[in-house]
Amino acid sequence: LKQVHPFAAILLLVFLTECVVVVLGYIYRAKVEDEVNHSIQKVYNEYSGPNTDAPSRAIDYVQRQLHCCGIHNYSDWRNTRWFKESKNNSVPVSCCQPSISNCTGTVTRPADLYQEGCEALVVKKLKEIMMYVIWAALTFASIQMLGMLCACVVLCRRSHDPAYELLVTTNSYA
After folding, report:
1. How far is 34 from 79, CA to CA, in rounded Å?
2. Where would you find the membrane-spanning parts of this chain (predicted)?
3. CA angle 169, 165, 172 (to 5 degrees)
4. Per-residue pLDDT tens over the stretch 71-130
């Protein structure tokens, strides 16, 4: 009984941890949007041009990958320090649609730019990822539950059937 009991306790501990992860993931899933709102505004304000620092490269990467421009739309770039300092009346080239070959990012040709903002798409992606994590944790929790059930069955059988005791004490396996 002492050899299997720690195993069942460890499985129970892992199971409870997974349950806590699922509950916290579901609760804080709603807070993702608030955190993204705060962070994305800060990152856009610190944009310093393509291929400069890591946050700026991250903005360009997100805009290219998610096919978006700005926070809510391309006009959000007008409120950034980079737009005001560059004085070229254009947004980063990463806002350009790939089908437009000579796009310079100028706001006078908005049809060349992605129309959707990045904030909603980033929030959507993060929520999708969190749901994958929640489902993975639920899957592992169900496997752990099955493991705990098997451990309990072995414990119960071992205490009632002398054949199990014989296998354990003689270290012989059938």
Report:
1. 20
2. 7-28, 129-156
3. 45
4. 999 999 988 888 888 888 889 999 999 998 888 888 889 999 999 999 889 888 888 888
Three-state DSSP string of 141-165: HHHHHHHHHHHHHHHHHHHHCHHHH
Q: How many residues does the chain have?
A: 174
Single-letter residue type at 165: E
Angle between helices 118-160 and 5-28 in degrees, nearest 10: 160
Q: What is the DSSP string of 7-76?
A: HHHHHHHHHHHHHHHHHHHHHHTTHHHHHHHHHHHHHHHT---TTSSHHHHHHHHHHHHHT--SSSSGGG
173: left (phi over 0), alpha (psi -120 to 50) or beta: beta
